[in-house]
Amino acid sequence: MTNWTPDLQGRVGPRYRVIADAIADDVAGGRLTAGTRLPTHRDLAYTLGVTVGTITRAYAEAEKRGLIGGEVGRGTFVLGQVQPPVVDSPDWPVSVSPSAVILTTILPEQNDAIQALQTTLAELAASNDLASLVTYAPHAGFPAHRAAGAEWMQRWHRLNATPDEVVLATGAQNATAVALGALLRPGDVILTERLTNYGLKVLCPTLSAHLEGIAIDDDGIVPEAFDAACRRTGARLLYTVPTLHNPTATVMSVERRKEIIAIARRFDVTIVEDDVFGFLVDDAVPFRALAPDIAIYLTSLSKSVIAGLRIGYIVASASLVSRLEATARALHYSVPALPAEVASRWIGNGMADRMAERQRAEARHRQRMARSILPVEYVRGNANAQHLWLELPEPWRNEEFVAEARRRSVQVLPAETFIVGRGSAPHAVRLSLCTPEHRTDLERGLQTLAQVLAGPLTARLSIV
Ligand SMILES: Cc1ncc(COP(=O)(O)O)c(C=O)c1O
């Protein structure tokens, strides 16, 4: 037991509160450290010359503030300052030990890219094209780059677009900002899946747009919930990731898409479809292919070819393109022509196809690995995805599972990362399977997660 005595000098107010304040100050100042046993009520009352009842009230007050905790027969202990839980960013892990397996950001490894980049940059250096690639590009991009984008989307995303319907963007995140920025009016609500792409969540405050989540099932947005949300909010915009939804990796069927389109038409809602993962599946039909009059489409090369080129494409009807151009001008003026040229050359010479093909094969291989290591009854999502949705059995809560995995050097993201607003998150985590460079690292990470799932929930609470 400590011989700590609170310093009450200069403190005014009821005695019990003054003592609780002194405990708080000493915890904050490090004079009382976690685990320290405090004097008994009787001893401290004697030392301070107050009644035992005052100490009882003071300790109760300190306990209410989360500073101390007691156990009958064992005494009263300092809990220490409450540390906020360490949460990994969906973009970059908070802290990385060299052996950690990072399954957070969906960032495919692309080893071919370096060699390809060296070759293409050398070709460009030897050509007379460089001057035209370091000037301002048109807001929608150079015609040849828009044409390459149209070719790419037709080849890999099952979407036919003419080059003048294509607007370049610096990746899908920027494409989303441009598309929504062009369509939004002050005070607008944006509807989306109730679990949604984290990038949208961080974008909406920047656009001063309010985000509303809609219920989802294994086929994506639930039509009745969409209908009800349109009625309730008067929203004019729906942002959706129907193909390999982020985070749950489901693919919306054509039938469901048609139902969503019918509702969108009824309420005059424009659908903004984010299809960054569309190249990974063979048969999903974009909303824009089904309803070009009410759907804007966007994608990027980040998951299929290489993320750092920052090349994305928006497809919209010609009548909307000038609005997109105006928004692009406001946000980034134009996409740098140099990476757009590199991407276009790769689309033209087959290099981008080979990279996308490799990503598809790698995603499928890693899904098979995951399904052979993790208990399949908890694995959710399409087996072509670069990510996987892992439901957590009882008694796991998301933050405990994430913390336990992190303690064992595996980093995953809890459902809370993706939940819209303050809705309650399901018991699940998202694993990016494509992030570790080597399959052996992924295997090690998945085995650890399987062990965590199989093992008992170890109470690691500092509270006594
Ligand atoms: C659904 C979705 N949209 C957009 C992005 C961001 O893509 P980009 O790197 O092209 O900006 C991601 C990244 O994971 C994503 O999952």
Based on the model shown, name its key terms:
17 strands; 464 residues; disordered C terminus; single chain; binds pyridoxal-5'-phosphate; 16 helices; 4-stranded antiparallel β-sheet; 42% helix; 14% strand; 7-stranded mixed β-sheet; alpha/beta
Structure description:
The protein contains 16 helices and 17 strands. It is α/β, with parallel strands linked by helices and 464 residues long. The protein has a seven-stranded mixed sheet with strand order 4-12-11-10-9-5-6, with helices on both faces. The protein has a four-stranded antiparallel sheet with strand order 13-14-17-16, with helices on one face. Helix 1 crosses helix 3 (52-64), helix 9 runs parallel beside helix 10 and helix 14 runs parallel beside helix 16 (439-454). The two termini are 15 Å apart. It binds pyridoxal-5'-phosphate. Pyridoxal-5'-phosphate binds next to helix 7.
